[in-house]
Amino acid sequence: MDHTLFRYDEPYGRPRRRVNFFGWTIAILLLIGLALTAWLGSYYIFSQPERPDSYRILQKLHKIEQPKRFQLTAAPPGEFLDPKKLHERYTNMRPAELAKANAELARNYIRNYQGAAGHVPYVVGRFTIMGTRDLGSSDLFTSGMVALTDAVDYGELLMEHVYPADAQAVPLMKETLATGLEIKLERSHDLSVVVHAERLADSRLLVTAVPLLYGSYTVTQGRGMFSLEPPLELNMAAGWPLFKNDMRRAAEVRYASYREKSAPNGRGVPIPGLAPPAVSLAPANELVRVEPAMRVETPTVPVATPAPSIAASPVKGGKVAKNVKGSPTPAASPKPSAAIAAASPAGPAAATPVAVASALPVTASSPAAAVAAVSSSAAPAQSPVPTAMPVAPGVALASTAGGGTWKVYPTGKMPVGRLITPSDLSDVADRGLASERVYLKGQFVVNFAEGNRAVLRPKGNAAQSMLRLGAPSSTRIIVEFPAGYAPPAQGSVVSRDEARPYEITEVRKQSDGQLNVFVREIMQ
Question: Which of 14, 50, 101, 219 fits a 20 to 30 Å CA distance from 196?
C-alpha cells in the first residue's frame, strides 16, 4: 500500500503529550518550602516577641497584651538580689550568655511573666539619683520618666529605674525625682524587676528595673504624690538601655559637680601617708511608695437567743381501787401529744434543742405527791446556750496605708511594755526589740506630715546639745496613723507621756549613724 496516498489527510485525534514530571517536582518543592517558611516564620515571631519586627507584627495582629499591674501578694515568684549579687551574676556571663539572658528578661516582661521559667530577679537596696530625663515616643517606654541611680553600698552597679506614667504626672515627677534623692527598695514593699543588664567598658554593670506594682510615690520631706501607670505599648526599636552612653556620661558629670557643691567645706588637716576620710552625704529626703488606706469595718457581735422557759403541766393523780384500800395505784402517764404541747410554747421555736422527758409511772401515797413526782420527772434537761464574749469598750481595729491592722486603746489602757525615751534608741538599734513591746515617749517636732504618715524629730534643749545628751540629731521618727486619723501639722510640737506613748515597730541604723525609728499610733 502506498503510504503517500493519504498524506494530506489530518488524523482524527491529537497526539498525546509527555507529562513534565520535573516541573511538577519543582512546584511541589516550592510549596513545601513555602509551608516550612510560614511555619518557621510564625514560630520565630511568636517565640521571640522582644525583637522589634516580631513585636510590631504581633501588635498589628493584636497578639500583644498591655503590661499588667501586679499586686504585692500575686506577683510572679522571684529572688531578691542586692547590688553586689546582681553585679556578680551578670558580669560573670559571656557575651552570648548575657544576650540570651537579656532576651529572656525582656520576653518575660512582654508576656506578663506567663510561663516564665525559674525565678524573676528583683532589686533590693539603697540607690541615689544621679540624673533623670523624660521619656518620649523615641524611647522604649513612651511616657513617664527614668532615673539613673548609683548603688549606695556598692559603687560597681548603676541602675536606671523606670517610672511609666501619664503625661499629666510628668511635671510633678520632675519636681520630686531630684538629683541626690535616695531610693530605697525593700523586699516587703517594692517589686522592681530587672528587664535588662549591660556591662560597661569600665567593668561596671548597668541594669534597667521596672516596678511591677505601678504604685504611688511620695517623699518623706515634701509635698505631692504621683502615681504610675502600666505602659500602653513599647517601642522595641529604640533598644536598651534608656540612658545611652553620652546621656549617662553627662549625668555622671553633673552628679559629680553636685556632690562637690553639697560636700561640707571643713575636711580637716590632711595627714601624709593617710587617705583623706570619705565624706558621707546623709540623705535628707527619701522616695517611698505609698498605698491607699483600706477601710476596716467594725465586726458585728452575734446576740444569742435566750432559751424558752418550759412550764410543766400538772398531771392528775390516778383513782384508788375500791377493793384495795390504802394501796396506791400507779399514776396515769400523760399523752405524748400533751407532753409535746407543754414543751413547745406559743410563738417561734428556739434554735436551741430541748429534750423532753417521758413520764414514768410513779408510786405516791397521795395525789399531791404523785403530781410533784411527775412534775419533777417531766422537767426538761436544757442544753447549755453559747454566749458571745463581749467586746471591750474602746478597742477598735485600724487600717494602715500598707493594709495592716492593729488595735487602738484608750489612754493608759495599752498592754504592758517597756517605756523608753529618745536617748535609749541607740541601744534599741544595737540590741533589737527582742520580741517585746517597746513604747516611746518624749517631745517631738513635726518635720513633714501628709496622708497617714508624719516624720518627727526629737526636741532637745540647749543644755542637752552642749553636753551631747539625749537622742542624736540624726534621729528620725516615722509615725504611721490609722485610717481616719489626722496627723499633726507641720512645724507643731507633739508631746507623748507614759499614758499616751507611741509603739515602736522597727529601728534601723544606717552606715552614717542616722536612726530611722518606725512607730505607730495606738491611742484613741
Answer: 219
Q: Is the residue at 157 inside a domain?
A: yes
- Dihedral (C-alpha) 320, 326, 330, 332: value to the nearest 10 degrees? 30
Does residue 236 surpass a pLDDT of 90? yes
Q: Is the pLDDT of residue 49 over 60?
A: yes
pLDDT, tens digit, for every residue of 267-309? Answer: 544 554 454 555 444 445 778 777 654 444 545 555 555 555 4
Strand order in the sheet with 192-199: 78-81, 120-123, 192-199, 205-211, 157-164, 144-151, 125-135, 182-185, 286-290, 216-219, 226-227
- Residue 103 burial (10 A CB sphere; 0-12, 13-18, 19+): middle
Taking the C-alpha atoms of residue 158 and residue 241, their distance in angstroms, rounded to an integer, is: 12
516 assigned to some structural domain = yes
- Find residue 405's DSSP bridge partners: 399
More confident residue, 411 or 288: 411
| Class of residue 12 by CB neighbours under 10 A (exposed 0-12, middle 13-18, buried 19+) | exposed
What domain range includes position 417?
396-520
Global pTM exceeds 0.90: no
Q: Within a domain: residue 452?
A: yes
Q: Which three cell numbers stand for residue 466?
A: 552642749
pLDDT digits (tens, 9 = 90+) for 108-159: 999 999 989 889 999 999 999 999 999 999 999 999 999 999 999 999 999 9
Domains: count for the chain? 2
Per-residue cell: 145: 520618666
Q: Tell me which of 290, 308, 336 is where a domain ends.
A: 290
Residue found by looking up cell 513591746 in the block = 437
Distance CA 363, CA 222 (A): 92
Which sign, positive or negative, has the C-alpha torsion 66, 72, 76, 78?
positive
Q: Which three cell numbers stand for residue 253?
A: 558629670
